Amino acid sequence: MSTIPKSAFEFLNDLKKNNHRDWMTENKKQYQANEKVLKTFYALVAERLNEKDEIEKTKVFRINRDVRFSKDKTPYNVHRSVSFSRAGAHRRGGYYLRLEPGNSLMAGGFFSPEPADLLRIRKEFEMDDQEIREILTNPDFKKAFGGFNTGYQVKTAPKGFSKDHPAIDLIKNKSFFVEHSFTDKEVFASDFLDKVVHHYELLRPYFDYMSDVLTTDLNGVSLLED
Q1: I need a labelling partner for 176 at 20 to 30 A (CA). Which of 70, 130, 142, 152 fits?
Q2: In whole angstroms, what is the distance from residue 148 CA to residue 150 CA?
Q3: How far apart are CA 140 and CA 119, in angstroms?
């Protein structure tokens, strides 16, 4: 199954209108059939990614929501999401795909990196932001993604950084990822797999750069064991 059938979104739309356990129980077979189709598609994405990268793990996110700390107590997500993790300590960055009626997207990069990685990224931008800006302003990259998602930033400057630094627009970020949205028509089209993989491949120069940053110190000395 190299395409996403409309029935996949029909199920999610029905779930959105009937987001409770009784309905899911009654429609369990349809849910399982839907998941089988989507997992086949995810496997094809991973297979294509492995042609030019190395994928260690495909993680399909659960449809059940964690409602413990949420005001919204509906039990199920009304989207299906998957991530593809790159193999090896020297390959950094991750690929993400969300399928949701009217709100599908692919994304990639570094969402809420651990404190040591976050500081290392910020220090790199503080020292030299030329290379990352060249990547972000590359015409193909910019057309596809625009730039970093800026919904996750500190208000002024992180502790230890000047709010007047020329790269403060980058340093303020708490996450460093980009995304590209797809219409439902694009999701159902025969070339959707190609489009997803194409956008993932546009991330490679960024991933290569960030992999180098996160596996070396500020002097460029490798942090990885030989």
Answers
A1: 70
A2: 6
A3: 28
Instruction: Report whether 157 contacts 172 (CB < 8 A).
Output: yes
pTM above 0.90, yes or no: yes
Q: How far apart are CA 26 and CA 109, in angstroms?
A: 38
End-to-end CA gap in the chain: 42
CA distances from 215 to 106, 133, 175 (A): 26, 20, 18
Rounded (10°) CA dihedral 64, 68, 74, 75: 20
The β-bridge relationship of strands 94-99 and 55-60 is: unpaired
pLDDT tens by residue, 19-74: 999 999 999 999 999 999 999 999 999 999 999 999 999 999 999 999 998 999 99
Distance CA 91, CA 93 (A): 7
Does the pLDDT at position 78 exceed 70? yes
Q: What are phi and psi of 73, to 5 degrees?
A: -100, 10
**139 exposed, middle or buried (CB, 10 Å; 0-12, 13-18, 19+)?**
exposed
